[in-house]
Amino acid sequence: MRAPISSYIEHTVLLGGKFDKNSRDFLVKFFPRSGVGSEASMPVSMHQIPLDGSMKNTVLEIETVLFTAVEDLLVKHNISPKSIDILVSNCSVSCPTPSITAMIINKFKFRSNIMSYSLAGMGCSAGLLSISLAKDILKVHKNSLALVVTMEAITPHVYIGRNKSMLLTNTLFRMGGAAILLSNRKQDKTTAKYELQHLVRTNIGFDDQSYRGIVHEEDEDGTVGINLSPKLLHVAGKGLRTNSTTLGPLVLPYSELIKYGWSIFCQKLCAPLWRKEVYIPDLKMAFDHFCIHAGGKRVIDAVAESLSLCEEDVEPSRMTLYRFGNTSSSSIWYELCYLEAKGKMKKGDKVWQIAFGSGFKCNSGVWKCLSDVDPNVKNAWSDRIHRYPVDIPDQVDH
């Protein structure tokens, strides 16, 4: 259900428990500045007073999101559920039993020999982790179809406490998910939209500050929530630099690699005379489009500054955050849908998906568009793409 900011603020004021006046005032102040608009959705249970974060409602949210996404995908591509060979799901904090993959297998009556994997605890970067797992399995099992479903269930994880670092998640996370179909079958080459060219995973959890960047824990009063460290932007920047160092040589044109190599050579052998800093390659030269995890307004701003991106480059991320909120691991797929609905994905274009997640992880996926994507094909943006982009004020009116 849609959660307008005005309704959300009113709902917040009525919550009891350990949710004191300072907590309410903080959220009322921060909500309009989060970059999330009034059309983002919340599960039904979060429109109730008191909140009902029961397992029943958690499973209802998972079924609502993923059953719809899977059914739309199968119908759109005329795929029989019996044709799916591999099924991978990810949902970080909510881990029901039976598993999410088992729920989908039961709903759509997949084959008994389907290879299924349910990932949990992997954070907002888990969408690309699931793609990575599916890719590795497809290397071993030829002539196969892999279905990847990605989401985060927020029903049981609303924080009703006094810790401001944990209250932030209430203003950002919203309901959403995605289903992605991968294939290594020869007959699918003519109909596939994208080819996965590179997938780079980095984990800087060896660093204590990075490891503590995003933590699901109890506060001083024993209330459970997700703690976003004040150092999170610094940690994300470190993760992006580490990831880019590995990705760069795989995607950059030779001209950029030569400039970088020459500056390193001069720095080491001509140190007394060479006063210039090491050349930083321009990663923008390798890509036509960017899908940055819509983790929050400040996250998008920080990545844009780090990569010297213009407003057009980050438009899919900003519009996704505004329209859908932070949908965790699925946000980069909403952004790709935005590019498609805008008619921007042309044959030969390369798109860079950047995902951040607890641990701390930064993952990159590079996709090459195999044919012009028809903007009229229905997707998550189809009913209102004509209204975007919109100007997003520093403070949204509520």
From TrEMBL:
GO molecular function, one term: fatty acid elongase activity
Keyword Transferase part of the UniProt annotation: yes
Domain of life: Eukaryota
EC identifiers of the protein: 2.3.1.199
Domain FAE: 7-268
Keywords: Acyltransferase, Transferase
Keyword Acyltransferase in annotation: yes
Annotated Beta-ketoacyl-[acyl-carrier-protein] synthase III C-terminal domain residues: 287-368
Gene3D superfamilies per the UniProt record, alphabetical: 3.40.47.10
Cellular compartments per GO CC: membrane
GO biological process, one term: fatty acid biosynthetic process
EC category: transferase
Similarity remark: Belongs to the thiolase-like superfamily. Chalcone/stilbene synthases family.
Protein name, entry field: very-long-chain 3-oxoacyl-CoA synthase
Protein's organism: Thalictrum thalictroides (Rue-anemone)
